[in-house]
Structure formats: C-alpha cells, structure tokens
Specification:
This protein has about 400 residues and is an alpha/beta fold. Helices cover about 50% and strands about 15% of the residues. The strands form 3 sheets. Strands 1-2-9-6-5-3-4 form a 7-stranded mixed beta sheet, with helices on both faces. A two-stranded antiparallel sheet has the order 7-8. Strand 3, helix 3 and strand 4 form a beta-alpha-beta unit. The N and C termini lie far apart (about 55 Å). Bound molecules: nicotinamide-adenine-dinucleotide (NAD) and zinc ion. The site of nicotinamide-adenine-dinucleotide has 27 residues, from helix 3, helix 5 and helix 6.
Length: about 400
C-alpha cells in the first residue's frame, strides 16, 4: 500500500470499528464522519446552525474559485441570504441559480439550463458548485458538476433529512429519463458536506417523517444505539429538539459514510442500504410515484421485509413487530389498504427481468445483522404484501 491508501485503510477500519463499538466518529467541530474511497476523501459535518461556517470550512478543505450555488424555488428564497453571507464572508465570489422545486427538475432539460447559466457566467474548471437543497438539487447539481468542463468541485448543503443522511453522501448523482428514475448519472464525490440540522425547522413535517424512514433503516441494519435513541427519544426528535436531532442525523450520516467508504461503486456491501427498498420501490412504481413519499414507501417496505425475515425463520416475531412499532411512532405508514398485491409483486420482479437475476432481498437476522437472500419464495412475499393491507 502507498501512504495514501494506507491512511484510507486505517480511516476505514476506524470507522467500521467505531460503528461496531457503538461510538460515533465525532469531535468538537461537528465532524460526523469522513468518506474515504479510492477516488476521494471528504468530511461530513452535522450540527445546529452551522451554515454560517460554510465559507471557512471550504477554505480549510482547500476549495478555491467562484461559488456557483444551485438551489430550488422553495429553499433558495429561504436561505439565499444566509448562504451568500457564509460564502462571501470567507472571500469567495458567489452567484445563485434557482430551479423549480420538485422531482420534475431532475431532467436533462433542467441540467441544460444549468449548463447555459454556467457558460454565460464563464464558469471554469477552477470554480465550484454548491448544492443547497434536498436530494433533487444535490443529484442535479452533482450531475452538472460531474459533467461540466469535465468536472467541477462539488459541495453539498443538504436541507432535507433524506438528503442529510442519504442523498448528499456517497457521490451518486444523476437525473431521470422518461423511461426511468436516475437512469442518467455519474459518480462524483463532493469535497465537503455540511448539514445544518436547524434548516429542518422549515421542512414540511411530512417530508421530515419521510426522511426518518432512512434514519430508522440505518438503525435497523447497523446501529443499535441509534435504534435506542429513536425508540426512547422520538418525542424530542419529532419536536426537533436540537441535541437529539443532531445526534440522530450525525449517527445516521455516519452509517452511510461507513458503508459507501467500503463500497463506493455499489458492488458489494452497499446493497445493505436496500433494506426495505425492494418492496418500497415496487410500491412507488405500482402507485405511480404520486401517492407515497419515498420514505413512506420504504417504511412499508421495511415492515414487509421484517415479516419476510420472520416467515423465513430468520427474525424473532418480537423483533419484527418492533420494526413496525417504531415506524408507526415516528409517524410513518405501516399499513396501506390500497395495496394491490399482484401488481406490487410484479413490480418487485421487474429487477429480475431487467438484470436477468433473482431479486436480492436484504433481510434481518436481528437488529444490526443483515442477510442477503435471492431464494425468497414468491408466496412468502405475497403474504407479506397482503399483510400490509390491514
Ligand atoms: N444520490 C443518492 O444517493 C440519493 C439517495 C436517495 C435519494 N436520492 C434522490 O433524492 C431525491 C429526493 O430528495 P428529497 O426527499 O430531499 O426531495 P426534494 O429535494 O424534492 O425536497 C423535498 C421538498 O422539500 C423542499 N425543501 C427542501 N428542504 C427544505 C427546507 N429546509 N425547508 C423547506 N422546504 C424544503 C423542497 O423544495 C421540495 O419541495 C430523489 O430524486 C431521489 O432519487 C438520491
Ligand atoms: Zn431510500
């Protein structure tokens, strides 16, 4: 190993060890974790009211050039002044572009508008892009950063819970194609992620709860202490009490960091993040993407996956019911009368048809213990789906 690789190995080992020991990789400067991959190494900061420190932290990371901030029509007006001051206060020039809020902006057409804006403003290789928004903005802005001038530096300020613990970390960027979500994309790791949990105060409650599904997922698959926090302090979390919120976001982000550090290109370990997502995605497809938010679909998917785990004799009944109980207390759906079992079942099999291999189910053998199975009988899935109806 060269010195860099050796350092990366040590960091990775430390991160995994820390997870196993149940301590968060954290220090006084809001560092939640570091992503360390073959192609990049960057910090993820999580704190309360830390947006004003963005410029200084960019300097520390050695980010130079002009800041091209991309946001959406809801988030931009709320935070443009704060983010502008944070960046210009550290001596950067900054301009902002606002795209319409919503998944509809994750298209090549909108990416084209962003390219036009960058060309007009004469953006160059030495400049950088800041994504200020939820997963839609970070996926779009990251994709533009990956492709404009063969790659601009990229920084993310996630503003939804889902983006803080999931979309902003790991370098997957992209836009949708009329035939499929996220079909066009690139891996492009950011230089820094700064999650100011105080920004969650303006996020609609339903979006916040939807993000909690991914936090709970991280707890179920890898972090017993986070599970404990969610089970004991859900009132404080739902009330956005600062200390609890920061701790939950930080722990959850650290799980994503650790997993993507082990498997940047999704060839192995990253599959565990799919817990609840096989049925979650199928429910989104079957209901046409307008009834359920992603986290809501994943919540139902996790309930079903826990029941499948139980039916296969992997998970104790008591644990399976704890999955549903927690999600329900977090305000997430755990049943859905309208589930069309055969239709959802067909959608879970789509993956098989597309990739020519059996569906890889991420199941639980206990909290913190996942197992990947491709031999789940159709009838077991059918029963789990039917159980969601009541
Ligand atoms: N790249 C990845 O690894 C990855 C992972 C998971 C999801 N994603 C992608 O993320 C997208 C979903 O992201 P999302 O759930 O963050 O949705 P989003 O970006 O659409 O945000 C949801 C809504 O909340 C608003 N909003 C955001 N932050 C706010 C704030 N602080 N205050 C008030 N309003 C705010 C937005 O304007 C939007 O209307 C999907 O396109 C999905 O494919 C990507
Ligand atoms: Zn998800």
């Amino acid at each position: 190993l060269g010195p860099e690789e050796a350092a990366a190995e040590v960091a990775r080992a430390w991160q995994m060890l820390s997870l196993r020991l149940g301590v968060t990789v954290a220090s006084g400067n809001d560092l939640a974790c570091e992503v360390v991959t073959a192609s990049a190494r960057y910090p993820v900061f999580v704190g309360w009211e830390i947006l004003p420190s963005l410029g200084e932290r960019l300097r520390v990371q050695g980010v130079s050039g002009r800041a091209f901030v991309i946001s959406d029509s809801t988030v931009g007006p709320l935070y443009r002044k704060q983010v502008g001051e944070a960046v210009t206060g550290a001596g950067y020039e900054a301009v902002m572009l606002i795209v319409p809020a919503g998944e509809e902006s994750k298209t090549l057409k909108v990416a084209g508008w962003v390219y036009d804006w960058l060309v007009e403003r004469r953006a160059e290789r030495g400049d950088f892009i800041v994504a200020l928004g939820g997963g839609v903005v970070s996926d779009l802005a990251g994709f533009v950063a990956a492709t404009f001038a063969r790659g601009l530096a990229f920084v993310v300020c996630p503003t939804t819970l889902l983006a803080m613990v999931d979309a902003s970390i790991g370098g997957k960027t992209g836009v949708d194609h009329p035939k499929g979500k996220n079909l066009i994309g690139a891996f492009h790791q950011p230089r820094l992620v700064l999650a100011d949990a105080a920004m969650l105060r303006t996020l609609p409650a339903r979006e916040f709860r939807s993000g909690l599904a991914e936090v709970a997922k991280h707890a179920f698959i890898l972090d017993a202490d986070l599970l404990d926090l969610l089970e004991k302090r859900e009132d404080a979390l739902l009330a956005l009490e600062p200390e609890t919120t920061v701790e939950a976001v930080r722990r959850s982000a650290a799980i994503k960091c650790a997993v993507v550090s082990e498997d940047e290109r999704e060839q192995g370990r990253r599959v565990v993040l799919n817990f609840g997502h096989t049925i979650g995605h199928a429910l989104e497809t079957a209901t046409g993407y307008n009834m359920l938010l992603h986290g809501e679909a994943v919540s139902l998917g996790m309930v079903a996956a826990a029941r499948i785990s139980e039916a296969l004799g992997l998970l104790a009944a008591e644990h399976a019911s704890r999955v549903g109980a927690l999600l329900s207390r977090l305000g997430l759906p755990v049943s859905l009368k309208q589930v069309e079992v055969e239709r959802v079942l067909a959608a879970t099999e789509l993956d098989k048809k597309v990739r020519g291999r059996a569906v890889r189910w991420v199941l639980l053998e206990g909290f913190g213990r996942t197992v990947v199975r491709d031999d789940v009988p159709e009838d077991v899935v059918r029963q789990a789906l039917a159980s969601l109806k009541s």
